[in-house]
Amino acid sequence: MPIKEKIKSHFTTYETSIDENGLEHRRPAPREKIINPLTLVRKLTLMNWVYFLMGWMAWTMDGYDFHTVSLSVSKLAVYYDTPRARISQSITLTLLFRSVGAAIFGIAGDLYGRKYPLFINMLIIAVLQVGTAYAHTFETFLAVRALFGIAMGGVWGLAASMSLENLPVECRGLFSGVLQQGYALGYLIASIFNLTIVPNCPHPFRALFYIGAALTALVGFLRLLFPESKQFLEAKAQGRQGGHAKASMREARVQVRVHWRRCVYAVVLMAGFNFMSHSRYVLDPEYPTGVKKY
Question: Residues in domain Major facilitator superfamily (MFS) profile (predicted)?
Answer without folding.
Answer: 51-294
